[in-house]
Amino acid sequence: MSEALFAVVGHPNKGKSSIVATLTEDDSIAISGQSGTTTRCRYFPMSVDSQVLYTLVDTPGFQRARKALRWLNEHNNSLIERRATVAGFLDTYRDTGEYPDECELLQPILNGAGIIYVVDGSVPFGNEYEAEMDILRWTGQPSLALINSQGDGAYEQQWRDVLGQYFQVVRSFNAMSAEFDKRIDLLSTFALLDDRWRHSLELAVDRLKGERQARNQRAATIITTMLIEMVTHVEEQDIGAKIESKTLEPILELQYKNFQRRREEKGRRNIEKIFDYRQLVREESAHTLELADLFSMRDWYLWGLNKAQLTLVAAGASAAAGAVLDAVTLGASLGAAALASSILGGGAAWFYSDKLASVRIKQVLPLGGRTIAFGPSRHRNFPYVILGRALRHLKVLKQRTHAQRQVLSLTESEEAQDLQLEEHWYQSLEQEEKSALDKLMTKLSTGKDILNAQQGIVKLLEPLIAAMDESPKQ
Amino acid sequence: MDVSDCTHTLSPAKLSKPLDVVVALEWQLHEDERFTARELVQRDRAIGLSLGAQPNSPRDYWLWTRDWLRQLTKKDGLLSDAQNWMNTLHKVLLGLGLLLGMLTALATFDYDGWQRINLLVVIAVTCGLQLLLCVLTLVVMLPARFTRFVPGLPSAQAFLSLLNAGQWTGFITRLLPGWQTSWKTLSQQMRRREYLYSDVKKWIFLWQAQRLALAYHAGLLLTLLLLISFQDLAFGWSSTLTLETESIHRLTRWMAWPWHNIVPQAVPDLGLIDASRYFRIQGQVQAINVEEAQKLGFWWQFIILSILFYGVFPRFILWAICKRQLRQQCRLAIISHPEVERIVSRLSARSVSTRSLEPGETRFDKTQDLALDSLSRNRQFKSLDLSSIDIINWAQIDMSDGELLQLFNQDPEISEAHAAKPIARAGGICTHAEDEQLIKKLSAGACSHTVFALKSWEPPLAELGDFIKALLRANIEQVSLLLVAPPGKKVTGNNYQEWARFVAALGEPALTLLPGSGE
């Protein structure tokens, strides 16, 4: 099987490195507004268990295309010899320093790489591109053009008209916003360039999809673990018999909250690690700090349930408990227990919706002494808030590509919030999913049957997370 | 430290017990926090390939995790320190149990020849109390699915758990040296997964309590045997209650039922029981003959067997149950552990890599940005005297000459006057030979100042740099660059910076960048 090799080439500063970063999910690739950032070819092999299925090559941009083309024209006599003439050009100028960028970028193509030619669809076509497209045509390698619009894409059609004259396939691909399914589509397109590469690329696509699925499953597990650890966490402090517990309560609450913040941060880092974001910086600016804080309870409705939803969930859970009592009395209570429990549970959730957790004093036997404990949180909304925040973080992360270098902002803009552009994650669930989730969250809030709840939540999250990989439907 | 350094196949740690695997797993998870997901995938997939067929059942998950840990952990690592420390703790507890048993024996079988050892006390301490403790242990052992139907039982269980001797280990551990270095981190990590380890913890405490009890009985029996060997113990029975000899006989016969066929001499008969009865008020005054005194010593066989059957044997059974339960709970905790699924996934899933294996090499210079930014802001565009300059439309900007001239000088009359001298074209579609001819023509002309109209949205190329250098070498004294905005737009700050960097990189004092046309 011939190894599939693709050289990503083009004019400087048209997003070649961005495309490579997005396709390889490598955020260590240097990307900037400066042109000519890439000076040497860099190879990115896609391997499965050490077997390379294809390799992408990031290359420097053309710098002296017209002059190089002039040399080629002067040294060529026929169409048949064009590829050999390009090879002659490399032999002549390699290591001379006269055409460093052209030599560097043409070498992998002469070694058999398919050409991925990148242009920017947001700026107009210019004559200066013709020379480089001509040189690429001289190599005789299979080729594909990508219109990577770095702005509004106003000139995409103009580019399509020009590129269609030079390249076998022309595709639009935005390296900054391409969802996973678009990236996979693009890789599938690479397979069209040469039949010899079809098998390995199909295999690569299949493996990448499998890898993505595994990552999504891992993300579901990480979020669930974080959720359980945060909800069940108890902050404890041993105290002597003489110390007044009241004086320690605020300190304990602070420690409790600090733990929760650290745990959430750790969860986010783990998720970022799974999706190979190593150099990500998250936005913690002053104006979003309060909103970004886990314990900004007045903003909890953004992440979790609002007060009305919360009351309904609590009432539902209490009614279920009351129904058991009705069953025990063989219906003699005529469902009164269920109704009363429902009202009580719902009412309690309404009135105590600002209380995060309570302080308990535990007598420690047999050696005496006391332990003051804060938590676990029995607040009905707390697990929803944690989950909502985790899903938001994951969604923002998935909407991002490895080519983006700006900080990651987790909060929606005020405009987006006002217009409610994005549906609340809980609202987007089907009714059955909501019911199942409510039951599992009740288990967490009451600290019962947590291992089963864990499995249930993971199963519920997996399709939600997988759906984030799909492009929004037009 | 590289991720591959974590694999130590030459000296794997001994992980034979499920509890060791649990401890090793938490240590390894703590260690792995330093590595990226991709590094872990690469490391673990290599191990996974050596583990054989894909895991299908929960048992496979357990075996794969254990074997994975065996390949990762090393004998002389932190895990080993923790294991050694745990073994020391076990020894301390066993020593404590032995000591407690010996002290109990010395107190219960204290005989100074003045008064006989009261068998009722011995039976109460060595059998009655032990059976009661065993029953309480059984209550604690009951699983939650049974206890929740009995009102008050879960609370009683919680209270009894606090009394459990195994709980002491928790207190002792914090007092022993080495806790901070070996166990504090691990303990915190496991506490975060309380929901996972609560049953493991329960069975550890129960198992420890049974070990302690067995050690206690060992100390008790050992001391009793020593006392029997080196002292002449006289047993009797006495009670304030008006107990009949027959009642005691029934009790002893019932107690001796398990061994009455095997060791019949260890079953006290009615005569011995009758002869053993004493009253405190008789004291030492009552003289007994040698044969009777010898008979009183026969009780020791009964006592030893009672301790074995009602003290040691139930404890041994409880110890075996606890050990089995502990192993099961450890396995269950591992199978249910949220991280184990990820580990097995890393071991079994194909290792997919898309990253480059070589370091990147760039000429990205971030330090210049600020200075250039201030440069662009401070400049003001001034109209140029068109009669003293040559203008080159580089790379064929899609504008008429008139439109371009407007950019250089807003005065329409001056523009018209200059129209007689058309704007030159270079770059873009022009051939390299045409560019060379233009340089010759300009150097022979009257103007010593050449101005380029450039596409601001395109990056500067080396071929333009070559062209400018050639111009300056050909007697052109000054070269200026004017950035032209794309149709309907303005020259952006980023574009300007990009071109300013180009001018700075060329290092030609005669080269200047004019403010953009649209600014």
Features:
heterodimer, A: alpha/beta, Rossmann fold, six-stranded mixed β-sheet, 17 helices, 9 strands, B: alpha/beta, 3 domains, five-stranded parallel β-sheet, 22 helices, rod-shaped, disordered N terminus
Q: Can I get a quick summary?
A:
With about 475 residues, chain A is α/β, with parallel strands linked by helices. Helix content of chain A is about 50%, strand content about 10%.
Write out the strand line-up for the largest beta sheet of chain B, numbering strands in chain order: 5-4-6-7-8
Order of strands in the sheet with most strands of chain A: 2-3-1-4-5-6
Radius of gyration of chain A: 30 Å
Strand content of chain A: 5-15%
Gyration radius over CA of chain B: 47 Å
CATH fold label of the largest domain in chain A: Rossmann fold
Description:
The complex is a heterodimer of chains A (474) and B (519). By secondary structure, chain A is an alpha/beta fold. Chain A contains 17 helices and 9 strands. In chain A, a hairpin with a 2-residue loop joins strand 2 and strand 3. The radius of gyration of chain A is 30 Å and the shape is elongated. Chain A starts with a strand and ends in a 7-residue tail after the last helix. Chain B has helices at 18-32, 37-49, 58-72, 78-108, 119-141, 144-147, 153-163, 167-175, 179-182, 184-192, 194-230, 245-255, 270-276, 290-296, 299-336, 338-348, 369-378, 401-408, 412-418, 432-444, 462-473, 493-506, and strands spanning 117-118, 235-236, 352-353, 389-394, 424-426, 449-455, 478-484, 511-514. In chain B, the strands form 2 sheets. In chain B, strands 5-4-6-7-8 form a 5-stranded parallel β-sheet, covered by helices on one side. In chain B, strands 1-2 form a two-stranded parallel sheet. In chain B, helix 2 crosses helix 16 (338-348). The longest helix of chain B is centred in the middle third of the chain and has 38 residues, at 299-336. At the A-B interface, strand 2, helix 2, helix 8, helix 9 and helix 17 of A face helix 2, helix 8, helix 11, helix 16 and strand 3 of B. Strand 2 (42-48) of chain A pairs antiparallel with strand 3 (352-353) of chain B.
